[in-house]
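In the previous chapter we treated chains in isolation. Here, by contrast, the input contains two separate entities that must be folded as one system, with a combined length of 613 residues.
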Amino acid sequence: MLHVQDVSKSYGGSAVLKQIAFSVRRGEFFGILGPNGSGKSTLLKLISGVEKPDAGRLVLEGKPLSAYTPKQLSRILAVLLQEPLPDVGFTVREVVEMGRYPYQNWLGEEKGPSGALVDAILEKLDLTHLQHRSLQYLSGGERQRVALGKVMAQEPRLLLLDEPTTYLDIGYQVQMMDLIMNWRRQTGLTVVAVLHDLNLASIYCDRMLVIRDGTVRAIGTPAEVIGSDLIREVYGARAIVVEHPALRLPQIMLQQGRDAHGSFETND
Amino acid sequence: MSGKLALWGGAGAALLLISVIVSLSLGSAQLPLAHVWGILWHQLPMVGDWVRADWPLSSETIILEVRLPRVLLAILTGACLALAGAGFQGVLRNPLADPYTLGVASGAAVGASFIILFGLQAALFGVWTIPVVAFVTGIVSLILVLRLANIHGKLQLETLILSGVVVQAFLGSLVSFMVSLSDRVVNEIVFWLMGSLAMRGWSFAYLLIPFLTAGFAVLLIFARTLNLLALGERQAEHLGVRVTRTRLVVLVASTFMTAAAVSVAGTIGFVGLVVPHLVRLAAGPDHRLLIPLSALFGGIYLLWADTLARMALSPAEIPLGVVTAFLGAPFFAYLLRKNKKMARA
């Protein structure tokens, strides 16, 4: 599906990504994790095509990313951002319909009718009763569902998630992730997600990539990757890794940063 | 969407027609509405002969040669300015943007005054000289304002308007300097600067039509793209919008229409601010509605402003720019406060 081949990127002389390489298989849920400033957001920008790598290349469905036009790309690849949709006067239905933009010609016409598709998406996301309501009157959780609806209307084969649950409380976080998992089951969607929360990542990812200072530190299944040594090395935090009692997946439990001697532990 | 467009478009068209008839009848010589209607109808091909010409010939001359060109010019200028405002607001995502507040109108005025001052009206491109030069200086001042307002790659709402004020003050002094250079043409430039549609005749209306048509077509094509942009630049980018190109095209088209309007009518402020906002309040934020309706209601708005300008102190005329600023500046203050409140909430 996606091959990232020795990609590097720097801003103003300082290297943000150094020769990153990995591949994502079709239908996989692939997580990208790392501390703040590790370069994971930059990596996502490169994969989404809005920024170009300085060196290396990205191959999507057998074709270099740079060979796609923006519209072609947005028919294959959609991005769900962490920032909530702004306070605009558009209705829920209008925003979901905006997801059809890549399929419309310059007159705004589409080859086939898309009304039924939009209806089905609204139904699936429990937004039907809100469809004529303006975005500015929705709660944060509802708004993020609308953002997901817009992305679903794009009918992508690859979904990029940029910490989509950052501004949601835990109830909505799980709801959001479950909606995405459901969608994935039904369409065979591939997901590449930048995630903040290691526990959430462990539950949902098939494989994950951990980066720090722009280089790959670990790649593999959550069980292979998540360990207290790695967490100390990458995040500089002390953690105990336990097994999730129901799911048999690693979960971390944080400890206070001070060790017995009262000094802060760092990873250096 | 199309139902809404039919509703508001129909209402707007009816209002425009009534406004034209009423405005045509008003003036130093009051003409009965029935005569106005009859004279206009009489001009139509095919069905024109259905009415009998029972009005004095002088009425027909006043309507067709004096008042109608002015009314038409007011409508076209209003449409240009309102469209430019809708374009600037949409693409900069700034509710306070307008040809006047962005300094684009002043930029266009510098170029136009320069041409008038040195009597170069027909030197370069015939009748197109003033609009073309006004367009170039308008674009330059827009670039200046955007450069000035762009801090760390972000356009802040207030910074943009502040930059507009700074550039406007500078350009205003340039124009004043040009005015002071020559005694002979002082009145011409000063009157033109304050905005007026008096004594313009048909040729000016013809001049505006291509600018308006081209600008309107461009904005209409980009209406859906502007809708996506309203959700944020990144959102739009991920839907396949070429954001930079959209910005460039819409800014140029809006400046193009501003320059045309300034060339024929001087600096008429706040039309591009007031009209799109009122349309948005009534019909919502969808640019596919906002753009055609702004053109329509911009025409109506400026027609009435101009009618007020020539009627209020008749036979003396108030400059049109004075009338629109008188109505528009308080509205600007209201919007500023409203946006401040929303930002805090």
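The interface with chain B takes residues 48, 50, 69-75, 78-79, 81, 83, 85-90, 94-95, 98-99, 101-102, 104, 106, 108, 154 of chain A (CB under 8 Å). Residues 236 and 267 of chain A are 5 Å apart (CA to CA). Compare these points with the single-chain example from earlier in the chapter.
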